[in-house]
Structures are given as structure tokens and as C-alpha cells.
Amino acid sequence: MALCTVAAVGGWRAGQLEPADGLRALAVDGKSLRGSRTRSRTAIHLLAAVLHGEKTVIAQGQVDSKSNEITAFQPLLAPLELTGTVATFDALLPQTGHGRDEIRRLKAATVAQLSFPHAVQALQIVRRHRAS
Fold it and tell me: In 3-state terms, what secondary structure has residue 75?
């Protein structure tokens, strides 16, 4: 029921947008919901389509726990009118299989007295992978 509501609201919102003068930019990305994993259930993973300029989610869906973003990508975008739209997505979607599990973690922190002019935040990127 909730996903039907998201689709209905996203479709309605997309229909309310003013026509774009040029190309419209759409970002598609997935995120695992922090804290949603339990001993008996994998983490809930959502895939969303966001219009860059309007900062509006026009489509979102839960990725099946036995699937991945690649199989959820086309069904997510199928009901949308994408004429005049450029879609961007991360490197996971064009891949057909890379033979490893990968976890990327980003941490941002405010840091005083960085060696770079006007910089007030630092970003730590940790990437772990293991062969499947």
C-alpha cells in the first residue's frame, strides 16, 4: 500500500512541474535504511528518482531483498515520462556483475584548522570488499 501511495504522489507531483526550458536532470540512486536490518531480516533498500533542479522525488520503490538495484531500475522509471530528461546514476547500475561484495562508508566531520583555505569539513571514505 505504501509503495502505491509513493507512486501516486510522485506521479502527481511530476505532472505539476512546469515544463523545462531545456533538458531536465534526473538522478537515480539507492540507499539502505540505517537501523532497518535485524537478525531475521536484511536491511531495507530503497531506489529513488529525484529531479535535480526541482529537488523532488518523483519515483521511489523498495528493492526486493533477493534482488538488487539493477533489476529495480527499469520498473522504477517505466511509468515516468522521460522525454527531454537526462538520467544520472551511479556505477552499480551499468554493471553486469563484478564478482565481489562491496561496502562504502562516508563520514563527514567538522574540523578546526584544516590546511585548506575556507575548508571546515573533512570526509573519510572507507571501502571494503570481499570476493564472492
Answer: helix
